[in-house]
Write a structure and sequence with these properties.
The protein has two helices and 17 strands. By secondary structure, the protein is mainly beta. It starts with a helix and ends with a strand.
Length: 371
């Protein structure tokens, strides 16, 4: 009898395990970079972390609950593939929480959609991948250095309580303590809504949160992909403070971003377009920035891909301000399905009104492995 019970228990456990799926994936990306700038102090030769793709390791799991319902989680950790320490110091590079990027637990129904709780990616972050083949890498205009297309190069407005802190600069990435809902896809249309509630009653850094809202609509029809996102971050009477907040928003101020993106594939070529706006309200000196980008990706053959991107950022609030510009071109050689070498050249100018600072030329040769 005991043997029978043990066999039944083992069979039950095996059946339950068969309904679950756990996976580990990630990217290692590093390259040799040469930077030439109008400012000689900015010239550099270095081994660079994640020039084309963000190096990360991701854990995800799904469990079939029956009736078309699934439960799951995702946790992503970013790391530097070129240094185990912090710069030239002795502090270990891997500090803080292991999951320092996207993090959520959720439920999914084929008929009702998906709900995620934690720090899920914002819809606008995903819209950026519709607008350019570069994602958030060098040449995208959505990276943490160079040109930042939403509200300038180093403006820390908007997503000010996401995992990773001030590194977002003017980008929309995600917000901590958030809930995201994704609708099912119907006739190619889908949408998602992300909200992190505002709490300005407390003056304690760890319990004061700026409000964050993101609404995104998507459309996919074979060769065409389109997306439109509206994001707003709001600070109340007591502004979120501390290293995790790192926001230039002041009391009772807000910032609003929009992002329109589309791409279309014709044979071996995919054409990309993106348009953004970024406006603040309630600041002593409000900001108003817009940008456009045009990109292309061309599959030269089964082994070589070519891609390029051009971004212009316009400061609509500053009188006589010169547009910021970025141009990039990349050749990718696929050694296998998971391993590629690449060469990227980008030229950007963050201050076209100056002849001594602002223009940067960067050459990168790199190696990327995905698993």
């Amino acid at each position: 009898m005991k043997k029978i019970l043990a066999i039944l228990a083992l069979a039950s456990a095996s059946a339950a395990f068969a309904q679950s799926n756990v996976s580990i994936s990630g990217v290692f990306d590093a390259g040799y970079s040469v930077t030439n700038s109008q400012d000689p102090m900015a010239d550099a030769q270095q081994i660079l972390a994640s020039p084309l793709s963000t190096s990360n390791i991701a854990f995800s799991a799904t469990e079939d609950l029956g009736g078309g319902v699934k439960a799951g989680f995702k946790g992503v950790h970013l790391f530097s593939p070129v240094s185990g320490q912090t710069l030239n110091g002795t502090t270990a590079y891997q500090t803080g929480n292991f999951f320092n990027d996207e993090l959520w637990v959720g439920l999914e129904s084929a008929t009702l959609g998906k709900v995620k709780l934690g720090a899920p990616n914002a819809g606008m972050f995903e819209t950026n991948f519709v607008a350019t083949p570069y994602g958030t890498g060098l040449g995208s205009g959505y990276s943490s250095s160079g040109i930042n297309r939403l509200l300038g190069q180093t403006t820390t407005l908007g997503v000010n309580q996401f995992a990773g802190g001030a590194a977002a600069n003017g980008r929309v990435i995600r917000s901590e303590k958030a809930i995201r809902y994704d609708t099912p896809t119907v006739a190619g249309f889908s949408a998602n809504y992300t909200r992190s509630p505002q709490n300005d009653n407390s003056t304690t850094a760890t319990s004061n949160y700026n409000g964050f809202t993101d609404v995104t609509a998507n459309y996919n029809n074979g060769n065409f992909n389109g997306a439109y996102s509206v994001t707003k971050a709001e600070a109340g009477t007591n502004v979120a403070q501390g290293a995790a907040a790192a926001s230039a928003l002041t009391a009772n101020s807000a910032v609003k971003y929009t992002f329109l993106a589309a791409n279309y594939t014709v044979g071996p070529a995919t054409l990309y377009y993106g348009h953004t706006t970024g406006k603040t309200e309630g600041l002593a000196s409000d900001k108003d920035v817009s940008s456009n980008n045009y990109g292309i990706k061309y599959a030269l053959n089964g082994t070589v891909d070519l891609q390029g991107n051009m971004v212009k950022v316009k400061d609509n609030a500053a009188t006589g301000a010169k547009d910021q510009e970025l141009k990039a071109i990349t050749a990718i050689y696929k050694l296998s399905k998971r391993t590629s070498t690449y060469a990227t050249y980008q030229k950007y100018d963050t201050d076209r009104s100056s002849d001594t600072t602002g223009e940067v030329k960067q050459y990168v040769v790199g190696l990327r492995h995905a698993f």
